[in-house]
Specification:
The complex is a heterodimer.
Chain A lengths: L3 H6 L7 E2 L19 H26 L13 H10 L5 E3 L5 H7 L3 H9 L23 H14 L6 E6 L6 H13 L3 E7 L2 E2 L2 E2 H4 L6 H5 L5 E5 L3 H16 L5 E6 L18 H8 L3 H11 L8 H20 L6 H5 L8 H17 L4
Parallel strand pairs in A: 1-7, 2-3, 3-4, 4-8, 7-8
Antiparallel strand pairs in A: 5-6
Helix pairs in contact in A: 2-3, 2-12, 2-13, 3-4, 3-10, 5-13, 6-7
Chain B lengths: L1 E3 L1 H15 L3 E5 L15 H5 L4 E3 L4 H13 L3 E5 L10 H8 L2 H4 L9 E6 L14 H5 L5 E3 L4 H13 L4 E6 L8 E3 L12 E4 L4 E5 L3 H14 L4 E5 L2 E3 L3 H11 L2 E8 L4 H13 L8 E5 L7 H7 L3 H12 L2
Helix pairs in contact in B: 1-7, 3-4, 8-12, 9-10
Classes of the chains: A alpha/beta, B alpha/beta.
Bound molecules: thiamine diphosphate.
Thiamine diphosphate (TPP) sits at the interface of chains A and B.
C-alpha cells in the first residue's frame, strides 16, 4: 500500500511518478499484489466499462443533435473510478466538469447528467447524491469552495474529506493557488485531484507552466503532493486512500497530479487535429486505462471476458433508457427561470414575470 | 471590397493593425495555434509570428494585468476573453487598474489596450457562455465600451478601439458572428467611438438597440412597416460614451422611444438611456420611454433560453403599444 515511505520516495521535485502496473497490465514490481479484492477489481473494471460506454454514447447523442456541448471523459476514467471507490457517503465531491465516473459513484443519475448537458439546470439537482457540488464551468473557481467545505468539516468536527477536481490548465488560475494556500494554512481535509490530461483545449502543458510537473506546485504551499499515473487504477486507488486516511488523521490537504490524456476532443465542438499529432495520440492510446486493467484481469483470470459484449449491450440499454428519461423530462417552464433566484421571489421579479405572461396571453402563447 | 462576416471582419482588422503597428500584440486562451474557439484569430499567428500572436496560460486576471503592463510600456495589447462569463476573473484588473491608471497617475501612465469579449446568448451554450455583462463596464469610469452589429462596423470600430488612447472593452455579439455577410472595404478605415448610427429613419418611434438585438429589431421594424408604422432605428454602437446627440435628435422628432437589450433590466444600459432621454428630450415625449430587456435572472441554459431571449414579435408588440399610446 502507498504509505509515507512511498510518498518520500516519489518526490515530486524528482519528477518521480507513482505507478503500479505497466502499460500492458503487468505489475512493475515482482510479487506485487493488489490491495483490492478480486471482486473489487472486477467491479472497478465494470464501472470503468460503464463510464466509457456512457461517455461514448453521450458523444453520439450530441452528434445526433439530441444534446448540446458535452466534454468527453475518454481516457481519464481510471481517476474517476478510483475516486468513486475511495470517496465516502459523508465526503464532499467538488467537480470541475470531466469526472463522469466519480459523479455516478456519488449517486448522480445518468438521467440528470444528460439533462444537464441537454441544457436544463434541473440536471444539477443531483437528487440522489449527497454532498456533491454542481459542475463548475469557470475553471478552478470551485477549488476555493472546497477549502471552505474543508473548514466547515473541521469546524463541525465531522470526519469527512473533500475531493476537489481541476484540470492542468486550471492550475494557472489564481484560484488554484489561493485554494492550496487556504487549505494548508487552515489545515483542512481537502484532496485536490489535478487531472493532467496534457491539454487545456489547444494549449499544451509546456505553454501552461515551466514547473517540472504540477505536483511541485503543492509543495510550495507545504501540501503533500505526488505525481501518479492517472491511467493506473491501482496506483490511483492507493494514493487516494492514503490521502483520505491522512486527512482523517487531521494531517490536512493533499494534492494528486493524475497524469493522463484526454483521448477525445475537449468538447463536442472541438477538433483536436488542429493542435495535436497522431503520434501523440497513439503514444497515449497504448496507456489506455481500460486496456491496462483488462490485461491485468485477463492475466489473472479474474473475470470471464467473453461476457463483456453481453455486459456492454446491457449497459447500452440502461444508458439509452436514462437518455430517454432525460428527453422525457417535463417542458422547461417560464417559472423555472425565475423560481430559484431568491428564496422568496421578490416583487420586482414577480412584476417582470407578470408582464411577460400578459404578453404571452395576448399573443396566444407565441414568444 | 470583399464579402465578410463578422468573424472575417474582426480578423481582418487585427491583421491590418498587426501589420500597421509593431506595438500591437494579440493574446489570450487558445488564440494562437487554434485561432480562437470562434476562429476569430485564425491564421494570425502563422502570419505575424508567436511573439505577436500567442496563447497565454489559462488565467484571465493574468491576461488583463499583463496587458496593462505592456500598455504602460508603450505596447498595444489586444487581448481576448474566451467567453463573456470568463471576464469575471479579470474584473479586478479591469476595474481596479486598467480603468484607473491614467487618473491615478495624473496622466503620466495610461492603459491603451483592447479587451475583446464574445458575448450574449442564443447559441445553446453551457453556463457562463451566454452572458451580457456590458453594464458592468459601462458603469466603470475610465472604460469605453463598444459593441458592433455588422461586419463593416466590427472592422472600423475595432481599428478605432486599437488606435484609441484609452482602454476599450470590445464586445462581440457571438450569436451573429457568422449570420450577416456584407461587403467590407479591404483597406484600413475607422469608425469613431461614441457615435451611434441611424440604420433606419422613421417618424413615429425611436428604437434603440445594439449588438445582436439590431437584427431582431430590424425584423420587428419590417413587421411594423407592413402595418404602416414608421420606426427609426438607432444602433448605439458604443454604450459608453452614449451618443446623446443622435438620441436627442431622434427622440425629439418621434416623441416615442423603445430600448431593447438582452442584458438584465436593473441598472442596465436601457436604464441609462432612459435617463439620457429624460435629460435631453423630456418635453418632447408623447409616451413613457419603454424598455424591453432581459429579466433580472441568470440567463437560462439552452432549454430555457426560449423564455428569456427577446424575439421580433415581442419587440413589435411594444412598438405597436407605444405608437397607439
Ligand atoms: C475561467 C474560465 N476561463 C476559460 C474557460 C474556457 N475553458 C473551458 S475548458 C478550458 C480548458 C480547461 O483546461 P484544463 O483545466 O486543463 O481542463 P480539461 O478541459 O483539459 O479537462 C477553457 C479555457 C472557462 N471555462 N473558465
Amino acid at each position: 500500500m502507498f504509505n509515507q515511505d512511498s510518498l518520500d520516495k516519489h518526490r515530486a521535485l524528482d519528477n518521480r511518478m507513482f505507478q503500479l502496473l505497466s502499460e500492458d497490465g503487468k505489475p512493475l514490481e515482482k510479487g506485487w499484489k493488489p490491495s483490492l479484492s478480486n471482486e473489487e477489481i472486477v467491479q472497478a473494471y465494470k464501472d470503468l466499462l460503464f463510464e466509457r460506454t456512457a461517455d461514448l454514447m453521450a458523444v453520439s447523442y450530441q452528434r445526433q443533435g439530441r444534446m448540446f456541448t458535452y466534454p468527453p471523459n475518454l481516457g481519464q476514467e481510471a481517476i474517476h473510478i478510483a475516486t468513486g471507490m475511495v470517496i465516502k457517503e459523508e465526503d464532499w465531491l467538488v467537480p470541475a466538469f470531466r469526472e463522469l465516473g466519480a459523479w455516478l459513484a456519488k449517486g448522480v443519475s445518468l438521467r440528470e447528467i444528460f439533462l444537464y448537458f441537454k441544457g436544463n439546470e434541473e440536471g444539477s439537482h443531483f437528487t440522489q447524491a449527497n454532498r456533491m457540488l454542481p459542475v463548475s464551468v469557470p475553471i478552478a473557481s470551485q477549488l476555493v469552495h472546497a477549502a471552505g467545505l474543508g473548514y466547515a468539516m473541521n469546524y463541525n468536527s465531522e470526519k469527512a474529506a473533500v475531493f476537489a477536481f481541476v484540470g492542468d490548465g486550471g492550475t494557472s488560475e489564481g484560484d488554484f493557488h489561493e485554494a492550496l494556500n487556504f487549505a494548508a494554512v487552515w489545515n483542512v481535509p481537502v484532496i485536490f485531484v489535478v487531472q493532467n490530461n496534457q491539454f487545456a483545449i489547444s494549449v499544451p502543458m509546456s505553454m501552461q507552466t515551466k514547473s517540472v510537473n504540477i505536483a511541485v506546485k503543492g509543495l510550495a504551499y507545504n501540501v503533500p503532493s505526488v505525481l501518479v499515473d492517472g491511467n493506473d487504477l491501482f496506483a490511483m486507488h492507493e494514493v487516494l486512500s492514503f490521502a483520505r486516511a491522512q486527512a482523517m488523521e487531521g494531517k490536512g490537504p493533499f494534492l494528486i497530479e493524475a497524469r493522463t490524456f484526454r483521448m477525445g476532443a475537449h468538447t463536442t465542438s472541438d477538433d483536436p487535429t488542429r493542435y495535436r499529432t497522431r503520434e501523440e495520440e497513439e503514444h497515449w492510446a497504448a496507456k489506455d486505462p481500460l486496456k491496462r486493467l483488462k490485461s491485468f484481469i485477463e492475466a489473472n483470470n479474474l473475470f470471464d471476458l467473453s461476457q463483456e459484449d453481453e455486459l456492454v449491450a446491457e449497459y447500452k440499454k440502461q444508458i439509452d433508457s436514462s437518455f430517454e428519461a432525460a428527453e422525457q423530462h417535463p417542458e422547461y417552464k417560464l417559472d423555472d427561470v425565475f423560481a430559484y433566484m431568491y428564496s422568496d421571489m421578490p416583487d420586482e421579479l414577480k412584476r417582470q414575470k407578470n408582464i411577460y405572461e400578459n404578453y404571452l396571453n395576448q399573443s396566444g402563447g407565441a414568444k | 471590397m470583399k464579402v465578410m462576416n463578422m468573424v472575417n471582419a474582426i480578423n481582418d482588422a487585427l491583421d491590418l493593425m498587426l501589420t500597421a503597428d509593431p506595438g500591437v500584440v494579440v493574446y489570450g486562451e487558445d488564440v494562437g495555434v487554434e485561432g480562437g474557439v470562434f476562429r476569430v484569430t485564425e491564421g494570425l499567428q502563422l502570419k505575424h509570428g508567436v511573439q505577436r500572436v500567442f496563447d497565454s496560460p489559462l488565467a484571465e486576471s493574468g491576461i488583463a494585468g499583463t496587458a496593462l503592463g505592456m500598455a504602460v510600456a508603450g505596447m498595444k495589447p489586444v487581448i481576448e476573453m474566451q467567453f463573456d462569463g470568463f471576464v469575471y476573473p479579470a474584473m479586478n484588473q479591469i476595474l481596479s487598474h486598467i480603468a484607473r491608471f491614467r487618473n491615478r497617475t495624473r496622466g503620466k501612465f495610461s492603459a491603451p489596450l483592447v479587451i475583446r469579449i464574445p458575448y450574449g446568448g442564443g447559441i445553446n451554450a453551457l453556463e457562463h457562455h451566454s452572458e451580457s455583462p456590458e453594464a458592468y463596464f459601462g458603469h466603470t469610469p475610465g472604460l469605453k465600451v463598444v459593441i458592433p452589429s455588422t461586419p463593416y462596423d466590427a472592422k472600423g470600430l475595432l481599428i478605432a478601439a486599437i488606435e484609441d488612447p484609452d482602454p476599450v472593452i470590445y464586445l462581440e455579439p457571438k450569436r451573429i458572428y457568422r449570420a450577416i455577410k456584407q461587403e467590407v472595404p479591404e483597406e484600413k478605415y475607422s469608425i469613431p467611438l461614441g457615435k451611434a448610427k441611424v440604420l433606419n429613419s422613421g417618424e413615429q418611434l425611436t428604437l434603440i438597440a445594439y449588438g445582436a438585438m439590431i437584427r431582431e429589431a430590424q425584423k420587428a421594424i419590417a413587421m411594423a412597416k407592413q402595418n404602416g408604422f414608421s420606426v427609426e432605428l438607432i444602433d448605439l454602437r458604443s454604450i459608453w460614451p452614449i451618443d446623446r446627440d443622435t438620441v436627442r435628435e431622434s427622440v425629439r422628432k418621434t416623441g416615442r422611444v423603445l430600448i431593447v437589450t438582452e442584458a438584465p433590466q436593473s441598472y442596465g444600459p436601457a436604464a441609462e438611456l432612459m435617463a439620457v432621454i429624460n435629460e435631453e428630450a423630456f418635453l418632447n415625449l408623447e409616451a413613457p420611454p419603454t424598455r424591453l430587456t432581459g429579466f433580472d435572472t441568470v440567463i437560462p441554459l439552452p432549454l430555457g433560453e426560449k423564455h428569456y431571449l427577446i424575439t421580433p414579435q415581442r419587440i413589435y408588440h411594444e412598438i405597436d403599444k407605444l405608437i397607439r399610446y
